[in-house]
Amino acid sequence: MILSQLGYVHLGGVVPESFDEEISIPDAYRRYRPDDVDVNKRILTFEQDNTLFRKLAESRRFRGTTLRGFVCHVESDEDMQFSALTCRLDDGSGFLAFRGTDGTVVGWKEDFNLSFMQQTAGQERAIEYLNTAFGSDDQPIRLGGHSKGGNFAIFSSLYCNEQIRDRIVNIYSYDGPGFRDEVIGSEVYKNMLPRIKCFIPQVSIVGMLLGNSSEPKIVKNSAIGIKQHFAYNWELKRNRFILADKLKKSGDVINKAISGMLEDFSDTEREIFTESLFEILQAPDKETLKELTKLRSYPSIIKAISKLKPEQQAVMKEAFRKIAQNGKGAFFK
Fold it and tell me: 86 and 229 share a domain?
């Protein structure tokens, strides 16, 4: 989880993009300038991520870890938000951390695209990255990621080059969305399943989207509602998560509400819903969800709803009706 969360730090210009060069965590932290990070690119955990980075640089455990291959791409035309980081641990093994959804509208749209696309641009890029990162050596490999990063970690392990797949020890998904039925039903998924480790908080929304045959471990959480998604609210005792027996009732109801809508909708309807929702969200011409929460964005959003095509409005109304029907009271428990 620590290395997966490190993937959220903006390391452009700090960690080499090349896999032929590397830098230690202490040296990387000395080069890191958080004040230079664009305000609009600072996600909710920005300050906590900076603190984590500092503590890693100071720790005996991680001072021998080196970093390489940092990439970060947000491409609106492809509905892709992708970032990854390769860590070489002091025992010689490698850990590939895929970043989860950041604050960009594009990043969140790709999460929704997972429900109707057989392969998103980000998933395709994850496969290419894994093949490049570990194609020229024979070290043991672990993959991980928080949120969408967990999905990328599992998906890339399924469809990477076979010689790389054989060296993968474990794949860790921390509240990451699942997969379409054709992926879960595939032989390669079934073969990799023993190596997949999934963890979700007691109120898990993102991590319960779509299907996942891996039985997740439920982690106790100190936050309320959607804030449980953020890793810093997960409860620990020394170096272990504190586990719960089951999801909280509110999380279970929310999951059933969203899952019910996805199960009832065809791929075409899921696509119309996604395109309509993000057509509305992008109407104020904002790039991040943080900007969209400002009051001045609301008139543009309301205007965009009224301009949707009749079939888009129909699907949106039906989606919210299904969510309300399947999860009545979910947000008030």
Answer: yes
Confidence of residue 330 (pLDDT cuts 50, 70, 90): very low
318: domain range?
Answer: 255-332
From the list 182, 330, 325, the residue with the least C-alpha distance to 255 is 330
Contact 100, 152 (CB under 8 A): no
CA-based Rg of the chain, rounded to a whole angstrom?
20
What are the E-state strand segments in 132-268? 141-146, 168-174, 196-201, 217-219, 236-237, 240-241, 243-244
> For the whole model, what pTM was predicted?
0.79
Residues 138 and 263 in one domain: no
**What CATH number does residue 90 fall under?**
3.40.50
| Number of domains within the chain | 2
Give the DSSP letter string of 14-59.
Answer: TS-SSSS--EEHHHHHHH--GGGS-GGG--TTHHHHHHHHHHHHH-
225, 247, 269 - which closes a domain: 247
The crossing angle, in degrees rounded to 10, of helices 105-113 and 148-159 is: 50
Share of residues in the chain with pLDDT > 90 (%):
46
pLDDT single digits (tens) 155-214: 999 999 999 999 999 999 998 888 888 889 999 999 999 999 999 998 876 666 656 667
* Helices H / strands E in the chain, number of each: 14, 11
What is the structure's pLDDT at 224? Answer: 78
